[in-house]
């Protein structure tokens, strides 16, 4: 099917019901994604009705490899700041960073009256807010399965769903125009390790009353069939633990409570002690234990410096770094940079996670480094040590058919995933004219009988250096990319008032790749001659000399060198002023 036919043109109205009904007061419902569409992460959704706004999740994303110096990626909150008086509350589906990680940053810009969410997610969030001194910026209230909360004109019902983190919810949101279902992250796991089944009954009951809009997780739409149950991982972990003769190192997502729980159970079964590396994982284990999501004896977890006192076959190291993060514990271990843990030949390393798109190279580098040092690394989709927390195509079909929505909007996924999920909805009987492919910032307006896509609001990405809590402009990242890929050239020259060269040009080159056979001194001399010629030519133009020189040098490198180094021009002018007995030069401030 041609995916281009799925999305109606902007501002095109479509019929939703056989019996058109307008809201009594003319109210419309607007759905505005600020993050999470066309990408993995930054999940932030706005529902606007009348004078009220409701936020669903407030997440962050992690940078791609070319975002040099960037630690976190956040949504642009400009739209929320402009409308902060209308925001009545925030509801959280679960405790993953791509759904709660943006809350501390959001609360720096505005206050949110109340935050509702699962106990585990709020436990993690409370710790984050205490660290940055924002614990008093919002009231947080824990919810139970099937609990309903009133937030402005919205009534939100939290229903249990199955995912890779405990205490996950889908949402049934009642609005003045009808019911909206937001699935959150989900799969249909019918043998969950914690025994908490997906609340399908609540979904079907809502469907009987009529669901206006379904917003559904698109992550695994490219994978056929069903996602295996989390319980299937246990058999493989048990086999590895039974056969390992030295230390076992396990890395997984810090928030994967079910996986951590299974690793601890395996350690107890085979009488191994566990050390946990990575503050995020240690914090989560403590909070999950406190809330009852996992149980283990006090003596099971030991400090890293106690490992050397135990036989190698009595040790398990549970660590962060499943995505090859440069500063994570596993990456430092792999590179022999960790102060306490060194890989010994015969160690078993279990990578119990799959790469987030963009992290494949980093993970491969970590696995290579571990292998070089003699570790047996167990990884990959066919190894049986990881299952996804997101539903595959058959589960997505099941969700659509359970809800039978009048309007469908795929969320949470890169754009190709959204396209495929939209096509899947059409296969399940949703009218193509009622399937909307949105991007971050787009506005979907709904009435009881019509839908239309409006002009977008301001949206985008904010880049953060978390070590200094600074926001980084896009052009800074672009400059860093040029520096990394093509190096930098600095040209310094001094001119008099007649634009005659008084000193220089001096050339400094950093990281520049030169033509074959040319030495730096030779190229520097050629570049000096080029600068002299350019300065002689600029008088024929109306351009300021520094700007002209920079533009011409950039063009030279692009055309002649096939590269784009960062070009910096430092130009100083001096004026000749008479004195009683001689003339002397009075320099003017340099211009960069």
Detail the topology: elements first, then pairings:
Blueprint: E1 14-15, E2 29-35, E3 44-49, E4 52-58, E5 72-75, H1 78-82, E6 87-91, H2 97-100, H3 103-109, E7 114-117, H4 119-131, E8 139-142, E9 148-151, E10 154-161, E11 168-175, E12 178-182, H5 200-209, E13 211-217, H6 232-243, E14 248-251, H7 257-269, E15 273-277, H8 279-291, E16 315-319, H9 329-334, E17 348-351, H10 360-372, E18 376-378, H11 393-403, E19 407-411, H12 415-427, E20 443-446, E21 450-454, E22 461-465, E23 470-472, H13 474-486, E24 488-496, E25 501-510, H14 520-537, H15 545-561, E26 566-578, E27 583-587
Parallel strand pairs: 4-6, 6-7, 7-8, 12-13, 13-19, 14-16, 14-17, 15-16, 17-18, 24-26
Antiparallel strand pairs: 1-21, 2-3, 2-20, 3-4, 5-22, 9-10, 10-11, 11-12, 20-21, 22-23, 24-25, 26-27
Describe this structure in a few short sentences.
The protein is of the alpha/beta class. It folds into 3 domains: 3-13 and 25-225 and 388-472, Ribonuclease Z/Hydroxyacylglutathione hydrolase-like (Metallo-beta-lactamase, Chain A, 4-Layer Sandwich); 232-383, Metallo-hydrolase/oxidoreductase (Rossmann fold, 3-Layer(aba) Sandwich); 481-587, Ubiquitin-like (UB roll) (Roll), CATH 3.10.20. The chain is built from 15 helices and 27 strands.
């Amino acid at each position: 099917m041609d995916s281009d036919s799925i999305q109606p043109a902007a501002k095109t109205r479509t019929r939703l019901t056989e019996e058109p009904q307008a809201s009594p007061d003319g109210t419309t419902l607007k759905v505005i994604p600020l993050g999470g569409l066309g990408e993995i992460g930054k999940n932030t959704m706005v529902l606007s009705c009348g004078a009220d706004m409701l936020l669903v999740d407030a997440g962050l994303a992690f940078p791609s490899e070319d975002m040099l110096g960037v630690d976190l990626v956040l949504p642009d909150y400009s739209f929320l700041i402009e409308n902060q008086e209308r925001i009545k509350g925030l509801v959280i589906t679960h405790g993953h960073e791509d759904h709660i990680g943006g809350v501390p940053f959001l609360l720096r810009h505005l206050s949110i009256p109340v935050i509702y969410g699962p106990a585990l997610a709020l436990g993690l969030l409370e710790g984050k807010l205490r660290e940055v001194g924002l614990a008093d910026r919002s009231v947080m209230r824990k919810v139970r399965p099937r609990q309903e909360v009133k937030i402005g004109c919205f009534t939100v019902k939290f229903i249990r769903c199955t995912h890779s983190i405990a205490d996950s919810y889908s949402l049934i949101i009642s609005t003045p125009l009808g019911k909206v279902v937001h699935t959150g992250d989900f799969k249909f796991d019918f043998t969950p390790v914690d025994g908490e089944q997906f609340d399908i009954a609540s979904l079907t009951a809502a469907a009987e009353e009529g669901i206006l809009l379904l917003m559904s997780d698109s992550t695994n739409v490219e994978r056929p069939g069903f996602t295996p149950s989390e319980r299937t991982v246990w058999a493989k972990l048990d086999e590895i633990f039974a056969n390992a003769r030295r230390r076992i190192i396990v890395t997984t997502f810090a928030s994967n409570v079910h996986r951590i729980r299974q690793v601890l159970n395996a350690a107890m079964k085979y009488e191994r002690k566990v050390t946990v590396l990575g503050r995020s994982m240690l914090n989560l284990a403590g909070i999950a234990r406190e809330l009852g999501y996992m149980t283990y004896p006090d003596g099971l977890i030991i400090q890293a410096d106690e490992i050397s006192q135990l036989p190698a076959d009595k040790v398990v190291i549970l660590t962060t770094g499943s995505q090859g993060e440069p500063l994570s514990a596993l990456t430092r271990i792999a590179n022999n940079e960790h102060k306490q843990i060194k890989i010994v030949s015969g160690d078993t390393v279990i990578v119990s996670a799959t790469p987030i798109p963009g992290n494949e190279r980093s993970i491969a580098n970590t696995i290579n480094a571990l292998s070089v040092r003699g570790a047996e690394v167990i990884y990959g989709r066919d190894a049986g040590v990881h299952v996804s927390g997101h539903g595959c195509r058959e589960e997505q079909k099941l969700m659509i058919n359970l809800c039978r929505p009048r309007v469908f909007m795929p969320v949470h996924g890169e754009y190709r995933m959204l396209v495929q999920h939209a096509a899947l909805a059409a296969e399940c009987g949703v009218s193509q004219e009622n399937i909307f492919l949105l991007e971050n910032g787009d506005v979907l307006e709904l009435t009881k009988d019509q839908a239309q896509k409006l002009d977008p609001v301001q949206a985008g990405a904010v880049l953060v250096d978390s070590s200094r809590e600074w926001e980084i402009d896009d052009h800074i990242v672009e400059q860093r990319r040029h520096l990394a890929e093509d190096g930098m050239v600095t040209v310094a020259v001094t001119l008099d008032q007649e634009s005659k060269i008084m000193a220089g040009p001096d050339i400094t080159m950093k990281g520049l790749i030169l033509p074959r056979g040319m030495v730096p001194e030779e190229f520097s001399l050629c570049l000096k001659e080029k600068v002299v010629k350019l300065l002689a030519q600029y008088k024929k133009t109306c351009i300021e000399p520094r700007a002209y020189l920079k533009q011409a040098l950039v063009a030279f490198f692009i055309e002649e060198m096939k590269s784009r180094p960062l070009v910096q021009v430092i130009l100083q002018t001096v004026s000749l002023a008479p004195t009683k007995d001689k003339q002397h030069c009075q320099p003017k401030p340099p211009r960069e």
